[in-house]
Amino acid sequence: MSATPEPFLGTLDHTPVRHHILSVLVENKAGVLARIAGLFARRGFNIYSLAVAPAESNARFSRVTIVVDAESAPLEQIVGQLDKLVNVVAISDLSPKDALERELLLATVRTNVDNRTSLLDIIANAGAAIVDVDAKSVTIMLAGTPGGCDELERALESFADVELHRTGRVALPRLGKTASA
Amino acid sequence: MQLTGAQALIKSLEQQGVEVVFGLPGGAILPVYDPLLDSSIRHILVRHEQGAGHMAEGYALATGRPGVAMVTSGPGATNIVTPIGNAHMDSTPLIVITGQVASGSIGTDAFQECDITGITMGITKHNFLVKSAQEIPRAVAAAFHLATTGRPGPVLIDVPKDVTQSMMDWWYPSTIEEYDLPGYRPEVALDQDAIERAVALISQAERPVLYVGGGTLKSHATKELLAFAERTRMPVVTTLMARGSFPDSHDQHLGMPGMHGMYTAVTAIQKSDLLISLGARFDDRVTGKIPAFAAGAKVIHVDIDKAEFNKVRHADVAIQSNVAAALRALDAASAIPKNLDSWWRQIRDWQAQYPLVYEEPSDDGLLRPQHVIEAIARKAEPGTIVTSGVGQHQMWASQFWKYEEPGTWINSGGAGTMGFGVPAAIGAKVGRPDRTVWCIDGDGCFQMTAQELVTARSEGIPIKVAILNNAYLGMVRQWQEMFYDERYSEVYLSADLPDYVKWAEAMGCVGLRATNLKEMHDVIEEANKINDVPVVIDFRTDSSEKVFPMVAAGASNDDIMVHPLQRGASK
Q1: Neighboring chain B residues of A40 at a CB cutoff of 8 Å
Q2: Up-side HSE of residue B410: CA atoms within 13 Å toward CB?
Q3: How far is CA A127 from the centre of its chain?
Q4: Closest to A34 (Cβ–Cβ): which among B121, B305, B314?
Q5: How confident is the model over A21-68, as pLDDT tens digits?
Q6: Chain B contacts of A26, Cβ < 8 Å?
Q7: Is there a contact between B122 and A31 if contact means CB atoms under 8 Å apart?
Q8: CATH 3.40.50.970 region(s) of chain B?
């Protein structure tokens, strides 16, 4: 139990082998995100992705969805240390099989006459949408599962010029499943 | 009632029952120093902000009440970062109030601006940047609540100058709800199932050890510990942070475990089949090589902080609770181990074979530091408070002084902050003026914070300081001798430079020196007669003296090195 964990360097399919989703309700106060990020940094925990937004139309709280690499440190340690932050109100631990996860992907792809058709095929296959278009480029959007976003990202690798952004995932428990606190 | 933010801040401290603040004024905190003149709160003017922080820690550890320090922005704030870090490592309740540049100047690199809430984020239990005067009472009340409940720790309140200068309508929170801490739940209900599983483990135990840590002192559980230990007849070890939680004179007490622990305490843990950890955190200075630590033992881990469970060592049973409540529950459930007669016979054998020893000093040679400590202790009143810096002298002060009650041993454990001893002694004496306070210090440590003796003299705080002057950074020297082929690199300090007697006198203290046994007895007697001013004694000790027993860093506790006088004897 003693060895320093190996740093998690990520995998090609963007999904850590043992990731967990922590849905963290925090007070909406200045510096809360710095407290969380600082805690992860100094304890050697790895954040895979992180998304923050006000929670339940209540300006007092925000919800931070953190995908953590549970191989960088035992999940119990991560949750235990996180829970000690005074501004952290509640932590739900969602295991991937019990969670509904969604993520937003935006990508601007430079196209030409030769490859525009194949891009349209990719868009159709992925269930993505075109949100902007001009003579040289197409901007597409996918709101989908992290796996779906991974697949779309891989499919776009055949294009030379792609600017791609992902939001990191948000999650809720599947109906009938409760998150462990 | 309309008050300035500064008046509200002082009034809030009064509401919390604060009797003393250790601090040093400056630009950004200036408004707060004005109403202090009209307050019942005593202010101790320090000579360096680090001193203010360690004094507040010493006060807290001696009294069990939170210590309060107040400093200005920028360098005033950064100078107190070390005490904050120290209090964080040792879970000491500490309130630090820092001035901040005016709100409108924050972020502009204004004169004496620094982001002290950012700097101390990782070494405080929590910190606040107060945005309006109206919020000051809430911040103060919440800070005291946070610092003193659950696992205690330091809390910093950063107050911009315009906030202390603006007006507010006086109020004070009367309920915890008004503290506005929706995410803070320091106490959880005791898990009865865990208690039952602990009772079951205890009932199977043939070689149990009570591994007592600082949390036992923090939760004021010494009575419960004594009752539990005596009822179950289990042997007790007390960590460096728990010295005084169980009487050293008690025959079930095996002493301190760890790197410089008693042979029997270390070995009993190694051979135990059940380790009951009470507010301890399996620090590396206790465990040595972790996989080899008490390898055959099951662990019952009692801690108020659930993040301590399974952090270092797997807990077979984890009980999230303060130590007092957990021990009461275990007692109520009549937890009792098997017959411990053969375990005690084994323990008594170890004790007989490997007591704490050192070479007898000769009449004309240099003093033995261990002997000096024993000589001071012999002449000290019961209940004397001992503080120390960090290094060899600290280990000897823990080993050779006998602690009988809580709050009599005050030192820097987790952080290992050199220079802690003198200011901590001053703070302890302020909190417990009825007690004699000795600082057992090293010459290296003394030089780091000695200027606070000026504070002690001018404020009328008569502490006694014993410098075990071996002319070296002794612990580093010991490691270089043992592990670096006696290649001494940057550890020599000189016994004569500075002249500690003249330095003490220049600071208004009595300065004494002892170079041989007769002088040693004389100066101790003389120091004990002085009760109006601080006394500093320069004891010239043998620099080749080393701390034993010792477990080398990262080694297994099975490979404990006993004193050279005891080597060759069979284990």
Answers
A1: none
A2: 36
A3: 19
A4: B121
A5: 999 999 999 899 999 999 999 998 988 889 998 887 678 999 999 999
A6: 183
A7: no
A8: 2-179, 369-540
Lowest mean pLDDT across A55-59, B191-195, B295-299, B408-412? A55-59
Helix residue ranges, H only, B442-558: 443-449, 452-459, 474-483, 500-506, 517-529
What are the CA-CA distances from residue B152 to residues A84, B146, B147, B281 (Å)? 12, 7, 5, 14
Tell me where in chain B the CATH 3.40.50.1220 domain(s) lie.
Answer: 192-353
Q: Using CB atoms, pick whichever of A1, A42, A76 lies closest to residue B312.
A: A1
A128: domain CATH number? 3.30.70.1150
Both A24 and A77 in one domain: the answer is yes
Domain encompassing residue A120:
100-171
Q: Is A111 in contact with A48 (CB distance < 8 Å)?
A: no
Half-sphere exposure of A132 (CA within 13 A, CB side): 8
Q: Does A91 touch chain B (CB under 8 A)?
A: no
Cβ atoms of A85 and A35 within 8 Å: the answer is: yes
Closest Cα in chain A, distance from residue B181 (Å):
7
List pLDDT tens digits, range A4-27.
Answer: 444 443 343 445 457 889 999 999
| CATH code reported for the domain at B192-353 | 3.40.50.1220
- Does the pLDDT of residue A72 top 90, yes or no? no
Which of B121, B129, B311 faces A35 most closely, judged by CB atoms?
B121
Q: What is the token pair recorded at A17?
A: 């082998």
What pTM, to 2 d.p., does this model score? 0.94
Quick check: B166 pLDDT over 80? yes
Contact flag B306-A80 (C-beta cutoff 8 Å):
yes
Topology, domain B369-540: Rossmann fold (3.40.50)
Say if B181 is an interface residue toward chain A (CB within 8 Å).
yes
Neighboring chain B residues of A85 at a CB cutoff of 8 Å:
183
Task: For chain A, say whether B435 makes contact (Cβ under 8 Å).
Answer: no
Q: What is the pLDDT of residue A95?
A: 80
- Is residue A76 less than 8 Å (CB to CB) from chain B? yes
Dmax over CA atoms of chain A, in Å, equals 58
User: Tell me: the pLDDT tens digits for B113-146?
Assistant: 999 999 999 999 999 999 999 999 999 999 999 9
**Contacting residues of A for B125, CB less than 8 Å apart:** 84, 86
| B:260-319 residues touching chain A, CB 8 A cutoff | 290-291, 305-307, 309-314
ipTM score of complex: 0.91
* Mean pLDDT on B154-178: 97
Binning pLDDT at 50, 70 and 90, where does residue A74 land? confident
Q: Find the mean pLDDT for residues B470-499.
A: 97
pLDDT band at A83 (very low <50, low <70, confident <90, very high): very high
> Measured in Å, how far apart are chain A's first and last C-alpha atoms?
24
User: Is A85 domain-assigned?
Assistant: yes
Question: Catalytic residue positions of B?
Answer: 49, 111-112, 161, 475
Contact B183 A89 (CB under 8 A): yes
Pair (A69, A113) in one structural domain: no
Question: What would you measure as the largest C-alpha separation in chain B, in angstroms?
Answer: 77
Query: Which phi-psi region, left, alpha or beta, contains residue B529 (left: φ > 0; alpha: ψ -120 to 50)?
Result: alpha
Q: Phi first, then psi: what are they for B422, rounded to 5°?
A: -65, -55
If pLDDT is split at 50, 70 and 90, which confidence band does A110 have?
very high
Tell which of B125, B151, B184 to mutate to test the A interface (max A CBs under 10 Å). Answer: B184
Beta bridge mates, A99: A173
Q: Does B477 touch chain A (CB under 8 A)?
A: no
Report helix, strand or coil for B504.
helix
pLDDT tens for each residue of B217-230 = 999 999 999 999 99
**For A86, which of B146, B291, B311 is closest by C-beta distance?**
B146
